[in-house]
Amino acid sequence: MNALRHAGRVVLVTGAGGGIGTAIAQLYCEEGARVALVDFDEVKVQEQAALLRAAGHVVEWAKADVANFEECVAACDQLAAKLGPIDTLINNAGVSPKHNGAPAPIWTMSPEEWERVVGINLTGSFNLVRALTPSMVERRFGRIVNMSSVAGSAFLPIVAAHYSATKAAIIGFTRHLAGELGPLGITANALAPGRIETPLLKTVSAEANELVVQETPLRRLGTPLEVARAACFLTSNESEFVTGQVVDVAGGWLMR
After folding, report:
1. How far apart are CA 175 and CA 7, in angstroms?
2. CB 245 within 8 Å of CB 189
3. How confident is the model at residue 154 (pLDDT cuts 50, 70, 90)?
4. 28 is catalytic
5. Which domains, and CATH codes, for the chain?
6. Is the pTM of this model over 0.90?
7. Which of 203, 214, 217, 235 has the greatest number of CB atoms lying within 10 Å of its CB?
8. What is the pLDDT of residues 227-237, one digit of tens each?
9. Per residue in 86-95, pLDDT tens?
10. Would you call 211 exposed, middle or buried from its count of C-beta atoms within 10 A (0-12, 13-18, 19+)?
11. What is the pLDDT of residue 203?
């Protein structure tokens, strides 16, 4: 693998303030890209940007709620002005609310919670794609990776209906993008992580996480770096003939 296979590229990563987003941003930096970090948590995204800059990488950051289209456009314009045209988008931002360590059942879920999860997990991906594709179309080049989940293809009891619905919708959204944007030189793929070692693990019980491990053929949790590697592959020249695909990063969980 060419360690600098993303040299010259400008990559925007949402949800970059921690967890999988941080790992993705760091790996793109290590592969030579200029990286734009976007997160609604200003403190966390600033901290991550500072750490990456201290390591010698070219990084800029912006605060934005991905569910808000105007904020997304403003962040993209701000970041592109500093880094150059953004040609690679990683729609990683997502939420999965819990209540005392458990997802809300559909019969008690508030409309406000439903709308917030849909706004971040699904509309947020649209907002960034809508903001960035005009430049990609103009340049006849672009790479898009949307974050789905194994919950988009199978019942996962540790998440709620809104999360599963948005992650299933991301798959359809990605496939449509691949068909619509492919003739314009833009690829679109999705990642479907299983249970990954991030702070979100602590929002459910250890017993629930252990059950997922036991249902996973590789008998362990995944790491943020493993998701990041898959993202980098899907946007590299090594996969330039790959589009419209959903790559499971789940240790075989869907085969259970």
Report:
1. 27
2. yes
3. very high
4. no
5. 10-249 (3.40.50.720)
6. yes
7. 235
8. 999 999 999 99
9. 999 999 999 9
10. middle
11. 76
